[in-house]
Every structure is written in C-alpha cells, then in structure tokens.
UniProtKB/TrEMBL annotation:
This is NADPH-dependent 7-cyano-7-deazaguanine reductase. Its EC number is 1.7.1.13. Keywords: Cytoplasm, NADP, Oxidoreductase, Queuosine biosynthesis. One of its GO terms (molecular function) is preQ1 synthase activity. It comes from Halomonas salipaludis.
Amino acid sequence: MSQHRPDTLQHAPLGRESAYPERYDATLLYSIPRAANRAPLGIEEGALPFVGEDEWHAFEVSWLNARGKPLVAVARFRLPADSPNLIESKSWKLYLNGFNQTRFASREEVIAKLERDLSGVAGSAVEVALFGVDDQALAPRRLPGECLDDLDIEVDDYTPSAAHLKVGEEIVEETLHSHLLKSNCPVTGQPDWGSVMIRYRGPRLDREGLLRYLIGYRQHQDFHEHCVEHIFSDLMVRARPERLLVLARYVRRGGLDISPWRATPGERPPEPLRLARQ
C-alpha cells in the first residue's frame, strides 16, 4: 500500500480537524470505492473470489426519545463484502454523533434510518442491530483454534511477504489464530491492533512461516478490510486450500471496532464473536 493519501480520501474527514455535529446529518457519511484497493490483488468487481462481511460495533450510540430523554445502545452493523463501497470510519463516527441530540419516536425509527442511510452510501443493504449495554450477545469470547503466538521465531521483515507462506504435503483441516496482527491507517499512520483467525482445509501450513507473514503487516498501511482481503488472496495463491476463512477482529478506536471476514463460498465465521480487547 502506498504511504501517500489515496485519491479517494482527499476530501474525507479522516486526518482532518472536524466539528462534531449536534443534529442528525446523513450527508456526513463518506464512501470509499473498494475497487481501487482490490485491483492490485487481481480482484475484479463482479467476480469476487470470496464471500464475506465487514462487521462493525459502535459503542457510543445515543439519541433522544420523543420526550427528550437520552437513550443509549451498542450498535452492530454488517456490510456485505460485495458492496461497491466501504464507509470511512471517521465520517461514520461524525454521523452517529449527530443522533445524540436528535429526537426519534422509537428504537425502530432509529434502526430504519441507520439502515437507509448506511445502505445508500455502501451501495448494498446494511444490516443494523441495537443492543442494550448489558446484553449477553456482547459478552467477550475467545478465538477458536490454536494460537501461534508462543512460537519462538526470529523476525526481521515487517512488510507482508507471501514468500513466508509454505505448505507441506499432508492435507489437514485446522483453525489457527494470532493476536499479533497490527497494521496502520493509510491516512493518519495510527496503529490498528487486531487478532486474526484462519480456518482452512488443505495442505498443512507451516506455522512459523504463517506467523512471520502475519507479523509482516506491522508496518503496512491499509484499511482493515483490505488487509483481510490481502491475507485471503495470498493464502489462496500460496497454499491453494479447498476451503478457507480469514477473520480479523480489530481493537476499537474512536468508539468503533471493525471485524472483516472473507471466505470461500459456504464458509462462515463462528457467531457471535467479540474479543476482550474490543
């Protein structure tokens, strides 16, 4: 990923000083076409090699009821991976802040407005759910499978290199994960911390090489969604698994977290799944 600000972000609020809105304003949402970042990976719109979603949680959601009393919730948003656009995170936060002093007749009205606005910007239907802050659906869980992080490896490469991905001849079905994923915002350079889970059936992956590869994103600048697509694409090319799921759970920043997943058709992530760091 280029270290320079992408052309699609020249007018985005990310990395700029912004006034926080006091009233609802759907025009604050800023779309980013997915195609530009997919092209270098050989991914063509309309012929995606994966299925998947971008799952967001917003922990700073509030509005006023019809009598002016504040209500709060945690929101879960699911954007399909085949939507033409993703939504820039700071614009999303500014948009949500506009609800804080806006009256709504019901919870259902809030959901309907969120679904309408977000779907319009993403270019595909966005699913919205609101949870109470103590809802058990939000309880943290652990990633399934075996953790790679205790492997005693030497690392001197902090850029993603698919050359680290090696496989053996044995066909296996396993789930692996690491909490050492880190990438950086392509605009501000701020660190994005995360965990990644890989579930596959195919030639056995060399675990030390896989961990070196994942650590290689440590100085990489890209959006969360594109990092996951990059990992998925490299694994498909280098390991050629029969089935593959790549899921990342990024730590929240600015009251938002994002958890993209990409998979071969028929694969789905375990649900519900939130980690303690989120």
